[in-house]
Amino acid sequence: MQAKKRYFTLVSAGFCLVLLFYLGGLQFRTSRTRDDHGDQVAPRGAEHPWPRFPDPLLPFIQWDQAESENFNSQGSPRQKRDANTSIYKGKKCRMESCFDFSLCKRNGFKVYTYPQQKGDKISESYQNILSAIEGSRYYTSDPSQACLFVLSLDTLDRDQLSPQYVHNLKSKVQNLHLWNNGRNHLIFNLYSGTWPDYTEDVGFDIGQAMLAKASISTDNFRPNFDVSIPLFSKDHPRTGGEKGFLRFNTIPPIRKYMLVFKGKRYLTGIGSDTRNALYHVHNGEDVVLLTTCKHGKDWQKHKDSRCDKDNAEYEK
Predict the structure, then answer these.
(1) CB of 189 within 8 A of CB of 156?
(2) Distance from chain centroid for Cα 180
(3) For residues 65 and 97, what is the distance between their CA atoms, to the nearest angstrom?
(4) Which residues pair with 261 in a beta bridge?
(5) 89-99 confidence digits (pLDDT tens)
(6) 259-264/111-113 β-pairing
(7) CA–CA distances in Å: residue 276 to residues 189, 208, 268, 270, 273
(8) Where are its TM segments located (predicted)?
(9) Of 161, 165, 147, 146, nearest to 204 (Cα)?
(10) Coil, strand or helix at 206
(11) Which of 105, 125, 157, 293 has the fewest Cβ atoms surrounding its Cβ within 10 A?
């Protein structure tokens, strides 16, 4: 009988303790509610609401402060394991924590491109990007007037097997006197990693820089900070081009092709499921999706029954 009383007292005390923690946590969460725009607001009935910033240019929060807030205690095991890799070092970056708006307040939105160094190779595609920036009204040749910085080092193709791959990029970036751990910098990238893994490591720590990247995963994309861009070829027109054939209220649009894709079909590894499924949509008329199996030195070991036909259509 005495044992039953002791167990009942212990369970009752535990229940009260859990209830106390629950009510305390609920009160804390209520006091830090957010509105539809993500801003902190005071709980209903509070006399002093959380401060709002009327200026659209948010105040700059020190990087160390933003990185330390809950970063070590939150996140998936994979993110904790990869915290020291280049793709995750700036995982918590947002505009209010990694972009200094005071540079834009002072001189307006001006973009500075680093001068190209003698001997540095640069692809035609990246040269087109730089030329488009330098030909715009936002360009400035004075770094002290700039709000945004773009490297002259070609970062588009970070596949080590590519002839466009720039070596020693890590040391070259770190030696830039304006780099400042990437703050207010924008990095362009189309390809990263090497077959068959194709990791999203660009080969150097981007720090606090924004990333304009093609095919970036949802795990690494930083909302309202990074920019998702499509893949484009070196033949893509830099500006303008011929007018399209789309007419007002014309459904479907009057054009010969509705969808076109041409690229390598990865037989194994990342991307293989998607590329191997394209033939279901390809009709050879207005939807043309061409893939080749000739990718990598040992592609014939993974060759399937569709490879010969796909390779032939790709070559046409």
Answers:
(1) yes
(2) 20
(3) 9
(4) 289
(5) 677 899 999 99
(6) unpaired
(7) 24, 36, 9, 11, 5
(8) 7-25
(9) 165
(10) coil
(11) 105
